[in-house]
């Protein structure tokens, strides 16, 4: 008798995600619809463990290496948005380098982060652009988070997300990006298309690791 593979429900599109791989004690599932790879929710870190991991990040605003790392996201904003536009850094973290670099160019960027900039009043207004630098892979409920981001955008606004994109050409078991214990959801290009269609964005663009939506 053939055993039916274990499955989960995709936290993005709500379709079935079948068993994909086990690496150490962690199980991963792959969505049959949006093709994303999902860490078993049973293996999600606690919020305390998550915060301890972020505290170890060394995202110094003056670090040339990290400034260069986020430069593609900053350049995408500068290309699309006039300097008088108002932005939000969603998931800014302990070292909001992209927001600082935009500030150097004259942009006003508000910071929000559940751990480091937890003022939720900033979520009661809307913005011309939102940046999520290495944030969306940490979403426990990505569909809910993207709906929130869409609500926070003014008409015609821009959402910029930077993450590593999963494709079939990647050897997942040897992919370093999965090794961060706080990386929970690995998006396939079809997942970004699903977000565009179902969350209510008008267009989608890929610029390397930067995924851009228009509101």
Q: What would you say about this model in short?
A:
The chain is of the alpha/beta class and 215 residues long. It has helices spanning 47-55, 64-80, 97-104, 142-152, 189-200; strands at residues 7-9, 16-23, 26-31, 37-39, 86-90, 108-112, 127-133, 153-162, 185-186, 203-207, 210-214. It contains five helices and eleven strands.
What does this structure look like?
It is a single chain. By secondary structure, the chain is of the alpha/beta class. The chain has one domain: Vaccinia Virus protein VP39 (Rossmann fold, 3-Layer(aba) Sandwich). Helix content is 27%, strand content 27%. It has helices at 47-55, 64-80, 97-104, 142-152, 189-200; strands at residues 7-9, 16-23, 26-31, 37-39, 86-90, 108-112, 127-133, 153-162, 185-186, 203-207, 210-214. The strands form two sheets. Strands 6-5-7-8-11-10 form a six-stranded mixed β-sheet, sandwiched between helices. α2 packs across α3. The longest helix is centred in the middle third of the chain and has 17 residues, at 64-80. The mean pLDDT is 95.
Summary keywords:
215 residues; alpha/beta; Rossmann fold; 5-stranded antiparallel beta sheet; 5 helices; 27% helix; globular
């Amino acid at each position: 008798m053939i055993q039916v593979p274990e499955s989960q429900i995709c936290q993005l599109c709500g379709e079935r995600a079948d068993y994909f791989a086990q690496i150490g004690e962690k199980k991963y599932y792959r969505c049959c619809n949006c093709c994303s790879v999902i860490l078993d929710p049973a293996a999600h870190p606690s919020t305390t463990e998550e915060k301890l991991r972020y505290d170890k990040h060394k995202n110094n605003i003056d670090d040339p290496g990290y400034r260069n790392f986020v430069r593609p996201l900053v350049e995408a904003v500068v290309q699309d948005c006039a300097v008088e536009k108002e932005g939000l850094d969603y998931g800014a973290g302990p070292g909001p380098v992209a927001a600082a670099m935009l500030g150097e160019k004259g942009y006003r960027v508000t910071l929000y982060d559940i751990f480091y900039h937890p003022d939720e009043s900033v979520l009661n207004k809307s913005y011309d652009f939102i940046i999520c630098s290495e944030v969306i892979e940490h979403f426990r409920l990505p569909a809910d988070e993207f709906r929130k981001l869409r609500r926070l955008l003014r008409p015609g606004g821009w959402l910029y997300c930077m993450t590593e994109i999963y494709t079939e050409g990647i050897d997942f078991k040897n992919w370093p990006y999965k090794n961060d214990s706080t990386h929970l959801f690995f998006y396939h290009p079809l997942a970004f298309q699903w977000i565009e269609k179902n969350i209510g964005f008008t267009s989608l663009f890929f610029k390397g690791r930067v995924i851009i939506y228009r509101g």
